[in-house]
Amino acid sequence: MQNKINVLLIEDDRSICSYITTALSSNGYRVTSAITAAEGLSLCASLCPDILLLDLGLPDMDGLEVISSIRSWSSLPIIVISARSKEQDKVEALDLGADDYLTKPFGPAELMARIRTSLRRRHLSVQDSKYKALELEVDFDKRLVTLAGQEVHLTQIEYQLLTLLAENSGKVLTYSHLIKSIWGPYMDTNNQILRVNMANIRRKLEQNPANPQYIFTEIGIGYRMRENERS
Amino acid sequence: MKQAQIIIISIVLIWALTSIILLRLQAKRIRGQAMQLAADEKKLAEAEQERLRANLLRAISHDLRTPLTGIIGNSLAYLENTDYLPSDEKDELVRNIYEDSNWLLHMVENLLTITHIRNQDMDIVTTEESLEEVVAESVQKFGSRHPDSQINVSIPEEFLMIPMDAILIEQVLINLCENAYYHSDSTEPIDLTVSHENDKVIFTVKDYGKGIPADKLNHLFDGAGDQISSDIYKGMGIGLAICKTIITAHHGTITGGNHDHGAVFTFTLPKNKEHYAKQDQCTLN
């Protein structure tokens, strides 16, 4: 009998709490829930859960503070659950170290998928040296990108962007994270140059840039690459 | 001789002064007229916005009541008959609740987008957005909500940055696609086409269904669509009224009608003039 995966849920809405608990338990997870940040933080320390689901709107503390507090001593995967229409919150949460976010309302299937992705990434201790999804392959060692077996020619910056996204496939990378990683900390925050580069990558990889298969846009937040099929 | 010179100079001076005064007066009059015109226009715009707002509220109240009635009715039917209802009928009741609440969510999301438009002035905050990213995200969201839907997208080859509130424009695109999905009575793929001209971008959403009934064509955007109520058309009114509000706030236009094989909606967004002026300068340099 396999050990069950421990999920800690910090969410103050009873109805959502019970729905998530039911959905997760029936999929073989063990769920502990807290309705305040204080209770959640202490459970997080005592239980050492495998993954944390965190609602940002808690009664006693801002969810963002919870993230910074946990990140100061733990790297456990955190998925933020957020009400819509606050892009800025999501960006801050991701930049503070959250692994992913889910926008309310979400179905059980989406929740399961995100949890699986976050857990899987965590177990990728040694970075895989290859990325593959559909017809796209990236060989990080050979610095080779192929689409349906044909080599794709990317500029230096385009290749760096693509590999950064591919290494973190399945996860949203924020504009500021991407800009800092590629252009360094002194690049201004205007993300036009990023978008132009993404547009060029899209033209080289996607059959129809308006209906992409590999790199997805989360407007106001960042980019997410289709999950690596090898992981 | 000197006297004559002085007289001539004085005449010239007086003439110059009079022209200046006359010009000033004329300018003032024109300015006055312009201000009057601007004030009239502002009043007209305010009246139009007020009308849009009132229609929107009417449509909202009407459209919220229908799914809520469904949810209350279905859940009560379940609770009151739980002992002797066969399980397939129970499933049916819960499925109805699920569908109605999804519909309610759709509506609430529409309403939420309206909060992006600041109250009185219908002011929106626009930023330069990559056209293809906005279209791609809309198509993706629409597709994930309706996995059985099909949509053909085509956009200009060029990389275009257009000033807009991306969340609002996504809502418009999703609304138009959902209208096509729900109301066309057809499973033919929807066409979403974007093209551009000198000063604007043109979005077209076309379906290949039964088209819009003639009696609705004149009231597509005023939220009155539902007063000639049939369930098939529920919610079409509010969605389109919101599209109109959003596009108007962007200083664009939106129209809807029928083509030979279904319904077609078209809206435009102005390009950023300064941006293009700058580009011209660059090429000149």
Poorly predicted tracts of residues of chain B: 225-233, 276-285
The CATH superfamily name of the largest domain in chain B is: Histidine kinase-like ATPase, C-terminal domain
Structural class of chain A: alpha/beta
SSE-based structural type of chain B: alpha+beta
Helix amount of chain A, in percent?
A: 40-55%
Number of helices of chain B: 6
Radius of gyration of chain A: 19 Å
CATH class descriptor name of the largest domain in chain A: Alpha Beta
The coarse overall form of chain B would be elongated
Span between termini of chain A: 24 Å
Enumerate the strands of the largest sheet of chain B in spatial order, edge to edge or round the barrel: 2-4-5-7-6
CATH topology of the largest domain in chain B: Heat Shock Protein 90
Q: Strand fraction band of chain B?
A: 5-15%
Give average pLDDT of chain B, whole number: 82
Structural write-up:
The complex is a heterodimer of chains A (231) and B (285). Chain A is of the alpha/beta class. Chain A has helices at residues 14-26, 37-47, 63-71, 87-96, 108-123, 156-167, 175-183, 192-205, and strands at residues 5-10, 29-34, 51-55, 78-82, 100-103, 130-133, 136-139, 144-147, 150-151, 172-174, 215-218, 222-225. Helices cover 41% and strands 22% of the residues of chain A. Chain A has a five-stranded parallel beta sheet, sandwiched between helices. A four-stranded antiparallel beta sheet of chain A has the order 6-7-8-9, covered by helices on one side. A three-stranded antiparallel beta sheet of chain A has the order 10-12-11. Chain A is globular and about 50 Å long. The relative contact order of chain A is 0.11. With 285 residues, chain B is of the alpha+beta class. Chain B has two domains: 54-111; 118-276, Histidine kinase-like ATPase, C-terminal domain (Heat Shock Protein 90, 2-Layer Sandwich). Chain B has six helices and seven strands; from the N terminus they run ααβαββαββαββα. A five-stranded mixed beta sheet of chain B has the order 2-4-5-7-6. In chain B, α2 (87-114) packs parallel to α5 and α4 (166-183) packs antiparallel against α5 (236-249). The longest helix of chain B is centred in the N-terminal third of the chain and has 79 residues, at 2-80. Chain A binds chain B through residues 84-85, 87, 105, 192, 195-196, 198-200, 202, 208-212, 216-220, and chain B through 105, 109, 112, 115, 128-130, 132-137, 139-140, 151, 153-155, 159, 161, 166-167, 170, 192, 194.
